[in-house]
Amino acid sequence: MAPKMSKQIRVLAASNCPITRLGLHDLINSQKPKMKVVQMVTDYKDILSNLEYLSPDVILLDLDLRIGSGLDIITKIKEMSTAKILVLTGLSDASLHKKIENLAAVVEIVDKSNAVETIIEAIKKSHKKYTQVPKVQTRLKLVSSGNSSHTRPG
To answer: What is the Cα–Cα distance from 98 to 94, expressed in whole angstroms?
Structure first.
């Protein structure tokens, strides 16, 4: 039997879209006391400046940021923090997913078109998995419906 998670999962969420930020904030905080949003940010600089003092357990990272790309910051986050990174994307581009997988710093890729419960489950699983698995092991799981027709507007 797996040990119970005793501490609250602290989530830093990063997205350029105000509606996405609001939705993530409300969704994650609806899980209190198990998890809570410690900060909502919109760009690369905000993530880096908040990492050290907030010490999030999980970073929910939308690839579309106001300044900089979520893809560009993943390696830097891993240098500065032990937080688990969940990439949130609506893009079903296989080459992009492969690039993310090759970074070996991402715990999961979460498809925005999936049910909202998928995000909560991904946060719980990544936190639980990585509090029990030695740090040297990196695991990657793709969470996707596989038939997403969601595309980014041009």
So the answer is: 6
